[in-house]
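User: Reviewer 2 asked us to show a designed sequence for the structure in our supplementary figure. I'm pasting the structure tokens here. Could you produce the per-position amino acids so we can include them in the response letter?
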């Protein structure tokens, strides 16, 4: 049975969360102002929410900032308790605030940090100190996807987390490669957690939520994926991370916005080189010319982020392997290979190799990437 103090603590916590939730419903108020308002009132979220005209005038005078138009009238239209009820109509939705231990530490360092994040999934096994953001073109080339997949596969079975935006192209490939290589991954979206956008990525949403990390949003349920939400989303992808890897980007693109934010936040910026004839690499080579690091393998990333040598988690298998299985694992232990490449490196019959690869997948020792390439875990 809970003590009176424990009950009071729960009430106080819920009361505070209600105000964090209410702030998330101020969709037309820029995140920077919300962060400045909370800091001005020494992270007293209730006091920040209840600020009056006199308080705001003093804040303007001290910080030399402007107050968003109609801020008070927008705020006063919201019912704090009603916002709280609407925010958790989906029972799988949880929330962390800037006060919580599970809130990403690096995200607190950016000037326009989100006051709170809604999420689905599990944050317990995520080591925030090893977050790598991956951004790039939504119309990514096959070559870029394969190169990114190869690089992420080299990071497989480590404690590195892949952070991206769950969009088409490079984002989807980053999450998919993370999942296939037993890495935790966080997707940051620009709409409410009840909306899957784009709809084609539903299987990624489900896999991440169930087994491989979490999906973050600063927006409450039923918030549509409006164009203006995505640049704001980008600051979270970058802000969570120690560094950002750009894989294909036109000169004017969301990926370049993320690259510039990376530099603004004093984080490490790296680029995956590509075909110079592809217009999607114009941004890549612009960044490289201006000092961005080049990443062609996993060790390049580890070196730039000062993460040392690659240490993969030990894979425990209590199953017996025959000589054919050992031979196949040896061939695909360094890099992913296609079925034909494995055949070319062995004297195994096609039917036998199909059986062997299936058995190794069942045993959890091999993953299939992009439906074509096989890689040892």
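Assistant: Here is a per-position design you can include in the supplement:
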């Amino acid at each position: 049975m809970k003590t009176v103090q424990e009950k009071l603590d729960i009430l106080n916590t819920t009361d505070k969360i209600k105000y964090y939730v209410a702030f998330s419903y101020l969709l037309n108020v820029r995140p920077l102002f919300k962060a400045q308002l909370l800091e001005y009132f020494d992270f007293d979220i209730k006091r920040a929410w209840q600020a009056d005209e006199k308080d705001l005038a003093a804040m303007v005078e001290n910080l030399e900032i402007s107050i968003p138009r109609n801020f008070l009238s927008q705020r006063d239209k919201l019912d704090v308790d009603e916002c709280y009820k609407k925010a958790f109509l989906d029972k799988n939705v949880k929330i962390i605030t800037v006060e919580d231990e599970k809130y990403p530490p690096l995200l607190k360092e950016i000037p326009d940090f989100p006051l709170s994040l809604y999420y689905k999934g599990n944050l317990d096994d995520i080591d925030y100190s090893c977050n790598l953001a991956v951004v790039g073109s939504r119309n990514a080339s096959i070559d870029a996807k394969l190169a990114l997949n190869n690089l992420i596969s080299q990071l497989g079975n480590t404690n590195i987390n892949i952070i991206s935006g769950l969009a088409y192209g490079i984002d989807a490939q980053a999450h998919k490669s993370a999942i296939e290589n037993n890495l935790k991954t966080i997707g940051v979206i620009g709409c409410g957690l009840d909306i899957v956008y784009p709809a084609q990525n539903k299987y990624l949403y489900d896999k991440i939520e169930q087994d491989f990390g979490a999906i973050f949003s600063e927006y409450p349920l039923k918030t549509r994926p409006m164009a203006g939400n995505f640049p704001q989303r980008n600051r979270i992808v970058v802000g969570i991370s120690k560094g950002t890897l750009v894989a294909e980007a036109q000169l004017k693109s969301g990926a370049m916005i993320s690259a510039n934010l990376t530099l603004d936040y004093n984080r490490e910026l790296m680029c995956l080189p590509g075909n110079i004839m592809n217009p999607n690499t114009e941004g890549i080579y612009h960044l490289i010319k201006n000092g961005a690091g080049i990443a062609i393998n996993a060790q390049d990333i580890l070196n730039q982020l000062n993460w040392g040598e690659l240490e993969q988690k030990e894979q425990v298998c209590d199953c017996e392997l025959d000589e054919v299985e050992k031979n196949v694992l040896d061939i695909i232990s360094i890099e992913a290979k296609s079925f034909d490449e494995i055949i070319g490196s062995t004297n195994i019959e096609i039917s036998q190799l199909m059986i062997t690869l299936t058995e190794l997948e069942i045993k959890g020792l091999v993953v299939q990437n992009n439906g074509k390439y096989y890689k040892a875990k």
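For the response letter, you might also mention the following. Residues 4-8 have pLDDT under 50 and may be disordered. The longest strand covers residues 116-121.
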